[in-house]
Sequence to fold (415 residues):
Amino acid sequence: MFGSKNTSNLSLNTSKWASESFQKSQILTSSVDSLDPLGSVSTFSSKSSASTLYEPLTNSLDAAANPNPNPYLTSAAIVPDFNGDGKTDKLWVNSQTGEIVVRLMDGATIIQQGSLGQYDVSAWTYKTADFNSDQKTDFLLRNQTTGENVIVLMDGTNVANAVSLEKVDAGWTPSIGDFNGDRKTDIFWHNAQTGQNAIWEVDGTTVTNGTVLDNTDTALTPTVVDFDGNGKSDIFWRNQSTGENKVWFMDGSQKSEFALQSQDAAWTYTLGDFNGDLSTDILWRNQTTGENKIWTVNGIIVSEGTLNTLDASWKSSIGDFNGDGKTDVFWHNETTGENTAWLMDGTTVASEAFLSSNSAALKPSLGDFNGDGKTDIYWRDQQTGADSIWVMDGTQATETPISEADRLTSEWYTA
Ligand SMILES: [Ca+2]
Ligand SMILES: [Ca+2]
Ligand SMILES: [Ca+2]
Ligand SMILES: [Ca+2]
Fold:
């Protein structure tokens, strides 16, 4: 899922090289019915929040497996879809063993499941991507300790190809985007300690072009966006202390820099496309006051709209529940278990859904699991494994449980 400014890297634990494990996984990818931990290796913690990737594919006419008109929520580079059927799939990590499992979904039904092997979760992180533009989600694996990088091309639960790239020092962090608009994922590198930046343009498993970009102030944090909606990713820079914001509009490795209005440090943000014009917009939230507002962005033109205030126990997620191409906002109250959704039309809430309450401890993760173009909500019950899916249709939610046979025990985490 796209949108959060906070990276949630998986952390895994094993002694194997990623590529070896992934190659091995090719013989492990037939349907697995039970997932027995293979032995405790170490502990880790996994957040269920989204990763930072955000790859606009505005002129993508080939992402047609899902009827949603907005590629932000259907691109296989952003939302896991390993078999390219337009139905969001699920990635699971075992916190005890480091095993990674892919589950191909059809609504609440698991149509196939495969293990990708075990990883050292303290070192290896991943990003989803689509490096070969086949509409099937791939991985960029990065070892934050050794600096190793591996591209893993997926085909369903099978690894089609796994190739090691050049090592990049541990200080650097990759982000996923498509900077030249060829609909093949590229990699933006930023070194938070030094402010150094670089772009690797990628075609399949090959880095076709590596370019060093200007250094930035180390107080600035990059997020991949597409503020002009041209299908070429841009970089949004924010200084979370001073509130300064600016943008690099990218065309391959060429950049043009523009200042944006500032937004003081109390505000954090989530990305979406609330007016459906394929340019990235921003949902700002003040965690202290609970205030919310939206910037619809068109190039460097920003329109601001103030939304209702919701206190800090409400957590937002991004989806499109009526399938109109305009990003909506789902809210789960982590104290009371209340749920609501705002169906958005630009900077205003067009309608509000009053949904059933459930356990405050349930963790929602969003995707379109039945492929009808409308985002659904996967509810993870970390304690009991009694997960369920809310199939959404605008303001209506229909709950379907994951079958008892497919329940995953509490050491399994999903993003
Ligand atoms: Ca799928
Ligand atoms: Ca792919
Ligand atoms: Ca919508
Ligand atoms: Ca759906």
